[in-house]
Amino acid sequence: MKALGCELWVIGDELLTVSARATNGRDLGIAGISIRNAGDLLLENSWEDVMGELESAAASSDVLPYYCFEGLVNLFAYEEPVPSIEWLPARNSLLTLSEELKKKGPNVLRGLEGSYRSETAASIIFVIERLSKASKLFIRGGFYMPADPRSEKFREGRGKPRDPEPRPFEWARGPPPTEAEERMLERLERLRLEAEQSAQAVGGRAPALLQEVEGELQQARASASPEEARRAALRMMVRNLHPDRNPDNPAEVTPIFQYVQQLRTEEK
After folding, report:
1. Would you list the domain boundaries of the chain?
2. What pLDDT shows up at residue 174?
């Protein structure tokens, strides 16, 4: 949580730099304050209020609309923070924020000229890169521990845009994911979001069944042999969730059954 807190603090702080220079940057500044507050809370181990700050950021600005924050918000919607079941949505949320800011950047720069414009553009690029880098916290081998951005050493030389993060990003430990692994993670997250939408549309037991599936997969990831445990869990679930074995509520079971089948296909 502290690693995420460091990144959110820096991202929010740099958004304040952008908002101070942009012609219509008030709302973006409010979002920046809330994001930085969320980072502060995480760094102080006061995660209970993080969800409220992120929701405030999500409601503050059209530049970064609400749906972009959902994965981050949901990290703190549980009795215990940052459950692994929400890691992929959180990663997707950070990447979506990065892409949205990249798309909206020219509008933020509208009306700025000369060095004022170039320095603001550099700040936007920094935030885009930092959001992308922070998304790596939620994938295998991606953890790293940034410096506390509130320290005096980190603050030295502030008053100008921070330099964008160099690519490829540095990794503190473990190998970075390959391109194939990244594409797999994106496919799995897309399947999960589609299953969630289908479950909500069907209603009844469907949302609860989806949560049970995700819980089983989470237990498999925590086992001594996660790949073997995952395959065994998927085999068991595809049998138990088959509509023929659930004649009393086939409509509620079918979208979850299809989701599990798709996960098995990805395994092959």
Report:
1. 2-155, 179-267
2. 47
